[in-house]
Design brief:
Blueprint lengths: L2 E6 L4 E8 L3 E9 L1 H5 L6 H23 L8 E7 L3 H18 L3 E5 H17 L3 H4 L4 E6 L4 E8 L2 E7 L5 H11 L6 H9 L16 H10 L12 H12 L21 H27 L3 E5 L6 H14 L3 E2 L3 H4 L4 H12 L16
Parallel strand pairs: 1-4, 4-5, 6-9, 9-10
Antiparallel strand pairs: 1-2, 2-3, 6-7, 7-8
Helix pairs in contact: 2-3, 4-13, 6-7, 6-9, 7-10, 10-11
Bound molecules: 5'-O-[(R)-(carboxyoxy)(hydroxy)phosphoryl]adenosine (KG4) and zinc ion.
């Protein structure tokens, strides 16, 4: 049995959790900073780290109390140390070091993106009462799609993930946030556009579906290989197309985005939202399924903040069913940033003997 305290502070959510055996959640707490950053239209790193600093210790106390455990009961303290905003990561890492010094318990540095993948499995593991190592059929093909990441991995174990594709420009969530700004709909853009898209016509605009890496894919398939860059994404062309559709051909050059509601009276925001979402969902789902077929996946994972998107969930659910593959989609509370997934993955790191010490560093980029 393992008992792990998880700490997450990589972006704009301060989160703590206590998890048993990598799947049973004894306590979980999240303090979101969305309201703090909304008026700036995005996350301001310095504001974020200061807010983490204020929130982290009360949250830690809440989680330990709710779980009914003390530091002495823990087997390890797992903390996100990469990737993320460096000032934010340091708050979590230093809090973990302080707790480690006070208790003598080991620290485990956790990769936030790998934890998102693990978080998608946790509800299923808990329901079936199995461990991820032998309770899941590997390999999985995992799509991590959030405000900071849009990446595809071949996952062969809970903590073994090979990058086979990533965005070459914006993340999908970032595109949602920017399109929302163009339409004057505020931050974060994902939830509001998702809702609006349900009332619009997804065929009103023919927005581009970029497919970077097509040549590499052809070559790779010819040689039977699939490596990094094989299933890349690009969202900047789509974002620019939306801007031109809403603002006219010069894109409203020079005007700050969020201060301007759509200037053209003929624009139906719901149609723009629906057509934009249709393009994003097409690209994400097609690339995931292509990777699953090429890599011989035994299952699929879709995780990160954009995994909350209703259009994406419906599409990948239907595609997975058609292929007869299990699909692991996190519930809402585990789709966005949380510490449950950090503590969960910490269980596997501990079992593998991969523990860190007070020399643990934070790194803004993971690879
Ligand atoms: O994983 P997350 O909480 O934070 C990181 O970026 O790591 O993801 C936040 C992102 C934001 O860009 C937000 O707009 C997007 O996820 N998002 C959505 C939806 N809910 C949140 N995007 C599309 N549809 C949604 N329903
Ligand atoms: Zn995240």
């Amino acid at each position: 049995m393992t008992l792990i305290l998880g700490i997450e502070t990589s972006c704009d959510e301060t989160a703590t959790a206590v998890v048993r055996d990598g799947r049973t959640v004894l306590a979980e707490h999240v303090a979101s900073q969305i309201d703090l950053h909304a008026r700036f239209g995005g996350v301001i790193p310095e504001v974020a780290s200061r807010s983490h600093l204020e929130a982290i210790f009360p949250l830690l106390e809440d989680s330990l109390r709710e779980a009914g455990v003390t530091l002495a009961d823990l087997d390890a303290i797992a903390v996100t140390n990469t990737p993320g905003l460096i000032g934010c990561l340091l708050v979590g890492v230093n809090a973990a070091k302080g707790l480690s010094m006070a208790s003598g318990k080991p620290i485990i540095g956790i990769n936030h993106v790998h934890a998102h993948i693990y978080g998608a499995l946790m509800d299923d593991l808990e329901t079936r009462g199995v461990d991820a190592t032998d309770g899941i059929e590997w390999p999985l093909v995992s799509l991590v799609v959030s405000g900071g990441h849009t990446s595809l991995y071949e996952s062969t174990a809970p903590d073994a993930h090979r990058l086979v594709g990533r965005t070459i420009d914006d993340a999908a969530g970032e595109a949602y946030d920017k399109v929302s700004a163009v339409l004057g709909l505020g931050y974060p853009g994902g939830p509001v556009l998702d809702k609006l898209a349900a009332q619009g016509n997804g065929k009103a605009y023919d927005f581009p579906r970029s497919r970077p890496g097509a040549q590499r894919r052809r070559q790779g398939t010819a040689t039977g290989g699939a490596g990094a860059g094989h299933f890349d994404f690009s969202f900047s062309g789509l974002k620019t197309s939306v801007l031109y559709a809403v603002r006219g051909q010069d894109g409203g050059r020079g005007k700050p985005l969020r201060k301007h509601a759509p200037p053209r009276p003929d624009i139906v925001p719901a149609d723009v939202a629906a057509s934009f979402q249709a393009a994003v969902v097409d690209v994400l789902s097609d690339r995931l399924m292509e990777a699953a077929d090429v890599l011989g996946a035994a299952g699929l994972v879709v995780c990160g903040g954009v995994a909350a998107n209703s259009g994406l969930r419906a599409r990948v659910t239907a595609e997975a069913e058609a292929r007869g593959l299990p699909l692991y989609l996190p519930p809402m509370r585990l789709a966005t940033d949380n510490a449950v997934m950090i503590a969960g993955l910490g269980h596997h790191a501990l079992l593998a003997g991969r523990v860190d010490d007070l020399a643990l560093d934070a790194a803004p980029r993971a690879d």
